[in-house]
Specification:
alpha+beta, 7-stranded antiparallel beta sheet, about 25% helix, globular
């Protein structure tokens, strides 16, 4: 199921944290704006995070599906009657709930949705994410409203209120690069919980499956 895309962009040459880190288990490809020639700049980040999660599924569980294109994702959501036909070929974004629906349709894998209200501390999800990466090790989708930029969550460093999430940002535009380049430019980074917007709610989609044939 290989592609031309960069593999496992979260792996660091010099890890920032060496203790109390809980990471995904298994390979995936990094999907981002324009990575397949389709111009989704400004609205397609949720689709790209979903594609990254789908690539993880293809590497790590028995059921394989071609990673859906952005138009194919829109078609799936219309077929499921989650979206009207006017959604097709539109520039409407998708969030964690839509990601959950598509993963269920393609892979028959349920997802857990976690909602964090505005003004509520993200510290409330630290133990949930720690447990997720221990039990399942699958990538997590994170989206919000004021902070509407989709993010892939590939791990968590647990340190109370000073905990951090390992972010894989799909907003990068450009040719495929090394892990070191993407990390130095901030497209892959550890983001402290305090740096998330308290004025935004957040939804997280946690696929409830573990790697069956992981290489890492």
């Amino acid at each position: 199921m290989s592609t031309h895309l960069t593999l496992n962009v979260h792996i660091e040459e010099s890890p920032v944290f060496t203790k109390n880190c809980y990471l995904i288990n298994g390979d995936y490809e990094y999907y981002h704006y324009l990575c397949d020639g389709f111009d989704d700049r400004g609205w397609g980040c949720g689709y790209r995070t979903l594609q990254t999660i789908c690539s993880w599924m293809n590497h790590n569980i028995e059921k394989k599906c071609a990673v859906p294109s952005v138009p194919e994702i829109q078609t799936i959501l219309v077929d499921l009657e989650d979206k009207p036909r006017s959604f097709l070929n539109s520039k409407q974004w998708i969030g964690s709930f839509e990601v959950c629906l598509v993963i269920d349709r393609l892979y028959d894998i349920p997802c857990k949705i976690i909602h964090v209200n505005k003004k509520e501390s993200l510290e409330s999800i630290v133990e949930v994410l720690k447990d997720h990466f221990i039990r399942f090790g699958s990538p997590v989708m994170m989206g919000g409203d004021v902070d509407c930029s989709s993010k892939g969550i590939m791990g968590i460093h647990v340190n109370g209120a000073k905990s951090s999430l390992l972010i894989v940002d799909p907003h990068y535009v450009g040719k495929e690069q090394t892990n070191n380049f993407l990390q130095n430019k901030g497209w892959v980074k550890w983001q402290p919980l305090k740096d998330f917007l308290s004025s935004s709610f957040y939804n997280l989609c946690l696929p409830q499956t573990r790697a069956e044939c992981a290489n890492v």
